[in-house]
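Annex B, item 7. Sequence and structure tokens for protein A, then protein B.
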Amino acid sequence: MKAIGFKKHLPIEEEASLEMFDISKSEPKGRDLLVRVQAVSVNPVDTKIRGGSEGTEEAEPQILGFDAAGVVESVGGEASLFQPGDEVYYAGSNQRSGSNQQYHLVDERVVGRRPAQLSMAESAAMPLTAITAYEALFDRIGIVPERNRGASVLVLNGAGGVGSIAIQLAKWAGLNVVATASREETTAWCEQMGADKVINHHQPLFKQLQDAGYDGVDYILCFTDTAQHWSGMAECIRPQGTICSIVETEEPLPLTDLQAKSAAFMWEFMFTRPMYQTEDMIRQHVILDELADLFDQATIKPTLTETLTPLNAEQMKEAHRRVESGKTIGKIVLEHWQ
């Protein structure tokens, strides 16, 4: 079967940065599903893995990809959540071969039923970013929809893949949402997603909040450079507020900046549950099914902005180029294997 990956970590401009490989199709065991992949999307983590450790060679082809939508082909002996023929979507695990292959093994506990009202491409755009945003808001910060109605949240990089869905989920939960963007088109996108106010993350954050009538915010979701925005976030967070980030830092963060406010800081990493096989790993199945309901009810909308076809190495390179440019809005999806 066909798969897209690499054997050497290279810049995307290099011919061998991404290649088509012919690999064997595996049979599912245990709680695994074998999914016939019909659409995949590209996330920044894909480009980081491909370009990291530049020049290093791998013994076997490394197949990238996390987000996928497709049809269950067969199931392992212990699988009980899905049957052959079911349409599904998921973000998978960073500990296993990726979804950029025609048939993909994935643990059913991190798989959800595909939203019936979305296309296969729209569905493939959503799992990684939607799980990340959902976990950050509701599992990490602990927001309870309706109970926290009226509280404020600052979403840094609101036009990115995670920010786009986080704005919508925060509005669904009843929060007042301030998002950041730096261009006219990204500002318009954040407003389209439901942001109550949009400010520029290249300018002092707290001053802009004050000008907009805010004395600070209760929560902050950081979906961009954590270290770069640390002092601004520490200034903007209200006493006893919470900051949650998904972007790693090279140097330790000065957490004492939050001490006087008794503010909290935490990380969100959507691969934690499958990576450590946590007891609540099935939580991601539950989250994806709840998100499917929200999509089907049109409470939230998909953030797909571009679909590339066919699904081959050259189009995957183009998707990586666009993601690496840092100028993409929403999500890029590839479909139709060639």
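Protein B:
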Amino acid sequence: MKHVLFLILFLVNVMQVSSQIFDVETLKLSGDTNKRINLVILSDGYQESELNQFTIDATDFMNDMFSQSPFAEYVDYFNVYIIKVPSNESGADHPGTANDVTEPASPVLNVDTYFNATFDAYGFHRLLFYEIDGSYANNTEAKIYDVLANNFPSYDQALILVNSNVYGGSGGIFPMASKGVVNGVKATEIAIHELGHSLFDLKDEYFPLDEIYFSEAINMTQQSDPSLITWKNWLGTNGIGIYPYNNSGFAANWYRPHQGCKMRYLSYPFCSVCKEGIIEKIHDLVSPIDSYTPSSNMVNSPSFPIDFQLNLINPIPNTLQRVWTLNASNFTNNVDAVSLIETDLVEGTNTLKTVVNDATTLLKTDNHETIHVYTVTWTINYSALGVEDINSIMNNLSITIYPNPTNNIINFKFENSNNLNLKIDVVGLDGKKLKSLLVSNYETQQLDISNLSAGIYLTNFYANNTLVASKKIVKN
């Protein structure tokens, strides 16, 4: 995947920063940068002679991250790189200006580092940030953008690892963490927590929080009705419930899904709701179809049998389902390759399609709001003379259904990379079609089901006359 740089900020601020080229090293290469989430780790407080240690420290962080679910299951969806940015001196600043400890809690230091890593930021001893008070007077953020733009512009997320054994870290656009350890908890856990914010749109689950940080999100809501809450599909499973942030005041009206998630306590695992949110973002960013063959027009009458192959990015364990259809009829399931012979084809145009979706149990698909589907379609022109040509196209589809359950109106939102329309059929459990709807690309359509009896219905989704997904909806 490629990160879209904030060009206006870059042009206004970064032009004033001299561009530098540093050594870039690959820690983990799973695939092409355009087909993976690219995590980039920058060094700060490492002198030139210490950059080999930075490689070791960054590798340790990467291994810690990918030992945790759901990153462990989706490890091959990521590339990891480091940019070796040398500092003039080792460590980080300790101004001794924190308000939450008796200073000096650490020896007062003023260290010349490239990204100005500074403890005591905003008055908190363990808040390690590249500014001390938010004034951004040293233009460090522009320096970070500049280093990324000139050394690895196709990043998706960057973070900064600081060469200090004092525990500390911070979040924001570019999370920062030291190498420190407190009570057996590594400061790099802060960076993993902060990636939950900056890359995966998760909210903090601890209290106290300023009111400005509260909003509806994957793991935060003001809704307390079990039938309407966004994580209703997980209630009663793996400790998921509806827990208030506090017993009184503003926070008492906001709820989190779990009492012991990493978004609340470091060194804890992500809860089921946050895992689901992370996986959904991975599905947004990366198609599980890495490549396929044939991938371009084929002429000159290829000989039979003709082989069709998927190269997939498999989760661990592999939870990808593959459905193959030929001319809208099921051909085979859950294989990565098929072969066609003459008798499989009809004269004229033939359509071979594979539909791929992730059936991981880390997603609760029955009540999940969004379905991600990935397809490859081959069009095969066949005549008495043989196969004249084969054309192929890949499509990424996102189908969102809400609210579910509903009393009367249900919304369908559709997005796909090939500008197709989506045909929706609502059928009863007896198979009888009750409602139909056509939704265009990037469109949201409403369907009135108020005249249907209360119960469960099946919704089938068709693109180019091929069934790509099915989902249960509940009419209250």
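Comment on protein B: The longest strand covers residues 386-402.
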